Amino acid sequence: MAQIYPSILSADFARLADEAKAVDGADWLHVDVMDNHFVPNLTLGVPIVESLARATDTPLDCHLMIEDPDRWAPQYVEAGAGSVTFHVEAAAAPVRLAREIRAKGARASMALEPATPIEPFEDLLPELDMLLIMTVEPGFGGQAFLDIMLPKIRRTRELISKHGLELWLQVDGGVSESTIERCAEAGADVFVAGSAVYGAADPADAVRSLRARADSATASAAWACGH
Question: What residues form the annotated binding site for substrate?
Answer without folding.
Answer: 7, 63, 139-142, 172-174, 194-195
